[in-house]
Write a structure and sequence with these properties.
15 strands; elongated; alpha+beta
Length: about 270
């Protein structure tokens, strides 16, 4: 009897693994996916999720008590960190005439919500690219020139709308030029559901509440970024998924974001 029960348990385990494999599918990201701002299959806020986290702001106004506590704690740390950065910057007796070409790590702050590192590509002392989390590109517009290893930029969301004016300190280049490694490609996840009650699913990634599904799919979508999916670009790492649906439906899982790939993730029975 024990052997039979063990055999049944093994079969059940393989069945679950096979089902899980069907629910998760990695597909390569196209090289121009981040520029498809006018695509009918592309959700305009897929990058703003990461930007809100970087700027220590609630995403789409969707938050919970733990997220509020995290935001407030980060704000408190921001004041101390910003003060230290500015003290170190002002303590310098001389500054470089220009920032050398290449990728540089800079410290950015809005003096209110955040003080975080970013990678910035410099060409002819001009900021050409702005990357957060070592992988997520951000829209921006420089304001004036880089002077004394400091610049000012207007950060924008993926639609091109201005979010905040921030200061950029090239603090690691004050004494001598420091070239950083090129950022890695981001990855993404696209959640979808074939449940008729998909709109009732509450979905969280690392305890951050996402928007609800607008509708369900009658069949498996052939590509990512279709309307009806919840898609987010994220830095490559492991993430925790928590979701609750109608009645007893629930999902607890971890998933990996891989550089240059999109994970299509089905929430279903």
């Amino acid at each position: 009897m024990k052997k039979i029960n063990l055999f049944i348990l093994i079969l059940f385990s393989f069945s679950l693994q096979a089902q899980q494999f069907k629910d998760k599918e990695y597909i390569p990201l196209s090289e121009n996916i981040l520029t498809q701002s006018d695509s009918t299959n592309f959700s305009m806020d897929v990058l703003d999720y990461a930007l809100c986290q970087y700027m220590n702001m609630p995403y789409n106004g969707l938050t919970n008590r733990r997220e509020q506590d995290r935001i407030e704690a980060n704000k408190n740390q921001m004041f101390t960190k910003t003060e230290l950065v500015k003290t170190q910057y002002l303590a310098s007796t001389q500054y470089p005439d220009k920032i050398s070409d290449g990728w540089h790590v800079a410290i950015t702050t809005d003096n209110i919500n955040f003080c975080n590192n970013a990678k910035i590509l410099i060409e002819n002392n001009q900021m050409k690219e702005f990357v957060i989390e070592n992988s997520i590109p951000v829209k921006f517009s420089p304001i004036g020139e880089i002077k004394k290893a400091k610049g000012i930029v207007s950060l924008k969301n993926f639609k091109g709308e201005e979010i905040s004016i921030i200061e950029v300190y090239f603090i690691y280049d004050v004494e001598h030029s420091t070239i950083a490694e090129k950022p890695i490609k981001p990855g993404c996840v696209c959640f979808w559901s074939d449940l008729k009650s998909a709109g009732e699913i509450i979905l969280k990634v690392n305890d951050l509440l996402l928007e609800p599904f607008p509708f369900y799919f009658g069949k498996k979508p052939d590509v990512a970024f279709k309307r009806g999916m919840i898609c987010k670009f994220l830095k490559p790492a492991f993430y925790e998924l928590w979701a609750r649906g109608k009645g007893p439906l629930g999902w607890n899982d971890s998933f990996e974001i891989k550089s240059g790939y999109c994970l299509k993730y089905r929430l279903g029975r």
